[in-house]
Amino acid sequence: MLSIVWIILLSSTLCHGLDNGLAKTPPMGWLSWERFRCNTDCINDPDNCISEQLFQTMTDIVVADGYASVGYEYINVDDCWLEKHRSHDGKLVADRKRFPNGIKALSDYIHSRGLKFGIYEDYGNYTCAGYPGIIGYEEKDALQFAEWNVDYVKLDGCYALPFDMDRGYSTFGRLLNITGKSMVYSCSWPVYQIYAGIQPNYSAIQTHCNLWRNYDDIQDSWASVENIIDYYGNNQDLIAPNAGPGHWNDPDMLIIGNFGLSYEQAKTQFAIWSILAAPLLMSVDLRTIRPQFKHILQNRKIIAVDQDPLGIQGRRIYKHKGIEIWSRPIGPLYQNFYSYAIAFVNRRTDGTPSDISVTLKELGLINYSGYRVEDLYENVDYGVLYPNTKIKVKVNPSGVVMLKGEVQFPVDL
Ligand code: GLA
C-alpha cells in the first residue's frame, strides 16, 4: 500500500523540476572536506577528526566571529560521517564513536544556533571514501534526511554509472522534494559524466539540482585555483548560461585561510568565485584562521556581488599575456543597462604589479549617464565615470583588483 502511495506521489511530481524555492542566491556556509578530509582518528587527533565536536565548534565560530552575520548559514558535513554498514533495518547510521549523539542531535544543535545543516551522501554503492551509498535505499534515505531536519544534501557520484545519473539524480531530487522538507540539492552529476566522456544535459541538471559540480576537486594550492579558473573561463559558453536563481555552477570550496594561498591569491579566489556566482562554502579551520583571510571571507561588498539577486554568472572578457578581465552584470539596472562587477586578474609572475588601463566602453559599460565606480577591496571611490573614461589599475602578481560600476540614471529623471 505504502509503495502505491509512493508511486502516485512520484508520478504526480514527475513533470516538475526541483522548484523547491531554495538557493535563490548561491548558498553560503562551511564545508569540512577540503580542509579536514577523511580524518577519522579521534584518538590521536581529537580536535581535527570528522566528529560532532568539529561541526559544533565550527557552528559556534560561524556565529560568534561574524560569519553568520555576513551571510554564511550552512554547516555542511562531507564524507566519512557514517558507519561502514547500515543498521539491520537498512538505515544509515552515523559513526557511533565520532557522532555519539547521532545526526539529529547535531542537526538540532546547528539549528539552535540559527544556522542550517547539510549532509553528504553518494548516488552510488559507496561514497568516495568507501562508506555506504544510497543506491537501492533512495526512498529510505530521503525520508531519513527529512527526519533529521537536513537543509542541504550534497550527493556525490563515486561508485555509480555516469549513464544512470540522468535518471538517478533526478529521481533522488524528486524523492527529497516529496518528503515535504525543503532541502538544497547539490549534485555531482555533470562532473562524473564529463569524466566519462558524456556531454551533460545541463537543461535537465538545472531543473533538478540547486547546484552542481562541473570540474575537479579543489586542492590546497594556487595551481588548483588557477586550473579551476581556467576551466570556467575556457568553457564559459557552455557553463555560464545554466546559472540563475535557484540553480548554480559550483567551482568547489573556498580554500582561503589554509596553507596553499598567499593573501593576493586568496583575494583572487574570492573575487572570481563572486564573478562566477559560485556557492561560497568555506573549508578552513576557523579556530586558527589569520585575521587577513577572515577579512577577505567577510568582505560584504564582494559577498553582495556573489549574492546579486539577478543571478547572472559572469565571464572572462579578456585574456592576454597573463592578464585577465572578468565581468559580471549585476543590479541595479537602468533600462537595459546593467551595473557590473569587474575583476582584473594578474596571472603573471614577473614580480612587479602590472598596469592595466582600459576605457569603461571597452569593458562594455556604455551607458551615457555613467557609472559610479568603486574598488571593492580597497574602499576607493572613483566617483562617476563615463564610457570614454580610461581607468588604470595596478594589479599585483597572482592578485586582483575588483571594481564595481553602478549604473547612473540621467539627472533629469
Ligand atoms: C569527491 C568530491 C569531494 C569530496 C570527496 C569525499 O571527491 O568531489 O568534494 O566530497 O569526494 O570523499
UniProtKB/TrEMBL annotation:
Protein location: Lysosome
Name of protein: Alpha-galactosidase
Keyword Disulfide bond: yes
GO biological process: glycolipid catabolic process; glycoside catabolic process; oligosaccharide metabolic process
Record domain Alpha galactosidase A C-terminal: where: 311-399
Classification lineage: Eukaryota, Metazoa, Ecdysozoa, Arthropoda, Hexapoda
GO MF term set: alpha-galactosidase activity
InterPro entries (UniProt xref): Aldolase_TIM (IPR013785), GH (IPR017853), Glyco_hydro_27 (IPR002241), Glyco_hydro_27/36_CS (IPR000111), Glyco_hydro_b (IPR013780), Melibiase/NAGA_C (IPR035373)
Gene3D superfamilies in UniProt: Aldolase class I (3.20.20.70), Golgi alpha-mannosidase II (2.60.40.1180)
Subunit structure: Homodimer.
Signal peptide: 1-17
